[in-house]
TrEMBL record:
<keyword id="KW-0067">ATP-binding</keyword>
<dbReference type="InterPro" id="IPR014729">
    <property type="entry name" value="Rossmann-like_a/b/a_fold"/>
</dbReference>
<feature type="binding site">
    <location>
        <begin position="145"/>
        <end position="148"/>
    </location>
    <ligand>
        <name>ATP</name>
    </ligand>
</feature>
<feature type="binding site">
    <location>
        <begin position="182"/>
        <end position="185"/>
    </location>
    <ligand>
        <name>ATP</name>
    </ligand>
</feature>
<protein>
    <recommendedName>
        <fullName>Pantothenate synthetase</fullName>
        <ecNumber>6.3.2.1</ecNumber>
    </recommendedName>
</protein>
<comment type="function">
    <text>Catalyzes the condensation of pantoate with beta-alanine in an ATP-dependent reaction via a pantoyl-adenylate intermediate.</text>
</comment>
<keyword id="KW-0566">Pantothenate biosynthesis</keyword>
<keyword id="KW-0547">Nucleotide-binding</keyword>
<feature type="binding site">
    <location>
        <position position="59"/>
    </location>
    <ligand>
        <name>beta-alanine</name>
    </ligand>
</feature>
<feature type="binding site">
    <location>
        <position position="59"/>
    </location>
    <ligand>
        <name>(R)-pantoate</name>
    </ligand>
</feature>
<comment type="pathway">
    <text>Cofactor biosynthesis; (R)-pantothenate biosynthesis; (R)-pantothenate from (R)-pantoate and beta-alanine: step 1/1.</text>
</comment>
<dbReference type="Pfam" id="PF02569">
    <property type="entry name" value="Pantoate_ligase"/>
</dbReference>
<dbReference type="InterPro" id="IPR003721">
    <property type="entry name" value="Pantoate_ligase"/>
</dbReference>
<feature type="binding site">
    <location>
        <position position="151"/>
    </location>
    <ligand>
        <name>(R)-pantoate</name>
    </ligand>
</feature>
<comment type="subunit">
    <text>Homodimer.</text>
</comment>
<feature type="active site" description="Proton donor">
    <location>
        <position position="32"/>
    </location>
</feature>
<keyword id="KW-0963">Cytoplasm</keyword>
Length: 275
């Protein structure tokens, strides 16, 4: 496994094809390991798996946790090596943004809803860094977790609209045995808050079980669970079509939730079948 920290080193090292990239902000956990394992499976023993680690300042708001976001490069590299990563790109801020960017990606109207309504400008920052990483790594595949479902949807739209020659591969959310979605921010939770955070998954699964009774029943079942833990502050609970448009009739849907547990903000989502 090779660690690169400049764009020149990356270009010189990233020659093997097929090539898969997994983009992260570091603080790797089993969810990231699942992405890397899937990448290795898809490219085979002769392909190349690239991991990017970069805490992207453009996607953090002025009051968010950029400065305290966990940075754990040594343990990240150990996980990467265990999962068969060939190349790690860990640039500095100055390397990736030598000048304050004046041209960025405009993510369209979906970016102003759900997460975007709570975090204005967030997805412009996300898509800008994803576009830069796709350009720098030139992958055949790019793998993203379904936990960040709105992000995944917008990346798919960007790649389609801009005719990027790369397959976007979704990987299911990895959870703790009790259902809590793995997140780098889970380490902020104390014991009491972690127990409270489980209500997000309970609400989602209650909604999924009510799918046979239609959208109103799904939302009612989820809200009933959330009301039992009033200390958890809900930013949004939404039921959408798989492309995050409005739900139209029976079929597959996606329920998304964001909430604050103590000072920690968590997101989650689940697929639901409406009948």
């Amino acid at each position: 496994m090779r660690l690169t920290q400049t764009k020149a080193e990356l270009r010189a090292a990233a020659a093997v094809r097929p090539r898969a990239v997994v983009m992260t902000m570091g603080a790797l956990h089993d969810g990231h390991a699942a992405l890397l394992a899937e990448a290795r499976e898809r490219v085979g023993p002769d392909g190349s798996v690239l991991l990017t680690i970069f805490v992207n300042p453009l996607q953090f708001g002025p009051t968010e946790d950029f400065d305290r976001y966990p940075r754990t490069l040594a343990s990240d590299l150990a996980i990467a090596k265990a999962e068969g990563v060939d190349l790690v790109f860990n640039p500095s801020r100055d390397e990736l943004y030598p000048n304050e960017p004046s041209i960025t990606v405009h993510p369209g109207p979906l970016a102003d809803e759900l997460e975007g309504q709570v975090r204005p400008g967030h997805f412009g920052g996300v898509l800008t860094v994803v576009a830069k990483m796709l350009h720098l790594t030139s992958p055949d595949l790019a793998l993203f977790g379904e936990k960040d479902y709105q992000q995944l949807t917008l990346i798919r739209e960007m790649v389609c609209d801009l005719d990027w020659d790369v397959d976007i591969v979704p990987v299911p959310t990895v959870r703790e045995p009790d259902g809590l979605a793995l997140s780098s921010r889970n380490r902020y939770l104390d014991e009491t808050e972690r127990d409270e955070a489980l209500v997000l998954y309970r609400a989602l699964t209650a909604g999924a079980k009510a799918g046979m009774n239609g959208p109103d029943a799904v939302l009612a079942a989820a809200h009933a669970e959330l009301e039992a833990v009033p200390s958890v502050e809900i930013d949004y609970l939404a039921l959408r079509a798989p492309d995050l448009g409005p739900v139209i009739g029976p079929g597959e849907a996606r329920m998304l939730i964001a909430a604050r547990v103590g000072t920690t903000r968590l997101i989650d989502n689940i697929s639901i079948t409406l009948r």
